[in-house]
Structures are given as structure tokens and as C-alpha cells.
Amino acid sequence: MDQSPLVSVLMPAYNQAQFISEALDSLQQQTYTNWEVAIVDDGSPDNVAEVVKKYVESDPRIKFYHTENHGVSAARNYAASKTAGKYILPLDADDLFEPEYIEKCVQTFEKNHELKVVYCDWQMFGATTHTPPISYNGYRKLLIGNTIFCSGMYRMEDFEKVGGYDTKIPFGYEDWDFWLSLLDENAQVCQIPEKLFRYRIKEISRNSTVQSKENERITKTYIYNKHKEEYDRYFPDFITLLQQLQYADYRKEKWAKRSLPSRLWHAFKGTI
Question: How far apart are the C-alpha atoms of 140 and 138, rounded to whole Å?
Fold first, then answer.
């Protein structure tokens, strides 16, 4: 692919020295070769710089930068500022790409210039291999919860239009917030139906912070307030929503009290 567009890979690296070699190996094994990667040591306390040094010295496509610790959003934004690709593809330093991933993403984009995001199916590995399905089914459902993992490909120009990743987001979910900013109800998203991205699950990870109920509440409140106009457009007001939930609970309780014959009869009549 001599005239192939450049793909810029953004790789934050905080406490990932033990895994980053695998991530970089997966990049070097790509069938698509016109890529660059900006690795950002986000004030990491481990020896990530030492691990990456041999890659930087042997492969000019690999660049390494050090910053103070400002979080994953700031690290990705800094990495983007040091790259010049037509397309951006984030890759966390503990995750992996299958060899055909970048090539198939670029081919998909080049065939359809209306696309905003291209990603694939995924596979979890590490502490668990149980992989929940993930699929983009429109902007309304994206407002309810994230349906695109972090390593989806998008255009540099779109990244610049939305101002990159939000560095003020409190406790994770920066990918979800970014997709909400990048997309809208008319945006086209393509999911390649192959498991070309491998997402590592660790016993202790950054996501453990996100799972804190209070942190999760704070972050979701922040996202709601930031995108309030979109939420108001797609969903009823808060009181109406509570009333709908109350009615749903009432129907659930009423169904639970019915006898089996009564349940069968109402199911047959379509009056569940």
C-alpha cells in the first residue's frame, strides 16, 4: 500500500513496563506498515523508559515522550500533538492488536468517507477471558452506556474539532465521553465483525477506581451535565423518568404475584 495514509497510534504508559513490549510487538506485527506511535510516559514510577528504549532505537516509527502525571486523557492529547497521521488509533500499553487490525480499519475508512469511527469485535484476556458483546447501535444507546472500546480508529481532523479527550473528567470513562463528543445521531460507525483487538483484564487496574460507586456517580454526573442538551433531546425529564420506573416496578410486582396459569393466559393475550 504505497500511497497508504499515515496512522498515528496514541499510547499512554503509566505503570505498564511489564506489558508494553507485548503492545509494541503487536504493532510491529501489523500487516499495515505506515503507522507511527507516540508513547507518553505519564510520570510513570516504573522503568517503562528503559523497556521502550530498544524499540525507539531500532524502529523510527516509535517515539517516546515523558510528561508529569496528568492522567490518560492528557497523555493521549499530548501524544496526538506529536503525531501527523490522517487517522488516530489509541492503544493502551497493556492491550494488543491482531496483525490485520490497522489494515482493515484503514481499508474500511478509505471505502466510505462518511464514516466517523471504525472498530472491531474484541476479546478479553488475562485475569478473565469472559468477553461481553459490544456493538454500536446508535447515539441514543451510546448516551446510556459506552458501546465502543477505547481503540477505535477515527480521523485526526475530528479529534481536533472536539478538542481531544477531556482532561477534567474525574474518574475514567474518558473514552465514553470522547465518543459522545465525536458522534451524533447522524454519525456513521462501522464495526468489523472480527476479534482483532485484545483487551487485557488485570486483577488490579485503573478500572478498579472507576468501579467505586461514589466515583462512578461523580463521573456519570459530570458526563450528564456536559452532554445535557443531548440527554434532554433523547430522554424524558427526570420526574417523568422516575414515574416510568415506578410504573415498571409496579408491573413487575403484579406479575410476580400472578399464578402460573394466569401468567400463561396474559402472555397468550399479549397483556403482560
Answer: 6
